[in-house]
Amino acid sequence: MFNSLIKKGRGAQQNINNRFFELSQEVRDDFLEYCEKEGEVADNDKTQYLEVYPKTIVNKVNSPDVGMSYSMNMYQGCEHGCIYCYARNSHEYWGYSAGLDFERRILVKKNAPQLLEDFLKKKSWKAHPIVMSGNTDCYQPAEKQFEITRKCLELFLKYKHPVSIITKNALVLRDLDLLKALQKDQLISVNISITSLSEQTRRILEPRTATIKKRLETVKILSENNIPVNVMLAPIIPSINSHEILPLAKAVSEAGALSIAHTIVRLNGAIGQVFTDWIQKKMPDRAEKVLNQIKDCHNGNLNDSRFATRMKGEGNIAKQVSDLMQLAKLKYFKDKVMPTLNTNLHESCKDGQLKLF
């Protein structure tokens, strides 16, 4: 069957239907067979960068269990291609698929720096940490070309405003000069996502992300420069990376991380179909086992949308993961603490300069 061929270098293996569209497309075997015989390419699999023009860039986060109050995203869609990514669903609101479109059609907000500066200068705004990458990674491959994240960091420094970063890309080290300058006033923290110590697992789960070696080096370099780092061991997927919690915690602690956190994978919305198709093609020998164990964590479903329980899960497997995380924190992070970001300087810097009186 031609439609069962593995797409290398991508997470999703198909473009599933957009739930908001009445019509759908199907790639048929006879079409793929025709392309094969004629020597034609059915799908060039290239990434497209599409500029969009949002009117705002800082979002209020109303979910009580995500650990942030405000976030901003310079890009929609993410070329990293992490198969489990919860942000895939948001691509449907733009008229695209949560499958391959999410990885190949990247929406670029070139006006993000101007929108951010306008926001930071508002008289009504009281400083509160803003998280870059609440949805999609601000250091994904597009950032190397557009440098929107760097421009926004320059503004956070200019206005002495606290900012936190979530990423799994070593490209964050490109901006080490800005991070060090922000840290002088305790205005920065970085969250690095590391889901496995196995390169084979990393390549399957997160095909276009930085290698595990580079991510551990990133934690080390940031920590050596006194930039506080939290590592997200997330998501924990039963029978894929659930056995790695203790060695992961040990490795990131030795690299200098000050804390760790985790979530249990949950396949909300369209992600359930994307993930199921992926694991049946990439890991057919354990597909049913993994899917059933994920369901065991969410009361018989692939997803649980209830606040408080959706991130940590329920049941025996979820409890085992939680117990291992507690043990890891006691063993490797007992005397470590993430500092609180400084919100006291911004008010006197709203014109871009620190007032002396």
TrEMBL record:
Keywords for the protein's UniProt record, in alphabetical order: Iron, Iron-sulfur, Metal-binding
Annotated source species: Mesoflavibacter zeaxanthinifaciens subsp. sabulilitoris
Presence of the UniProt keyword Aminoacyl-tRNA synthetase in the record: no
Gene Ontology molecular-function annotations: catalytic activity; iron-sulfur cluster binding; metal ion binding
Chain ranges of the Radical SAM core domain: 64-301
InterPro entries in UniProt: Elp3/MiaA/NifB-like_rSAM, MJ0683-like, rSAM, rSAM_sf
The protein's name in its UniProt record: Radical SAM protein
CDD domains: Radical_SAM
Entry annotated with the keyword Iron: yes
Domain of life (superkingdom): Bacteria
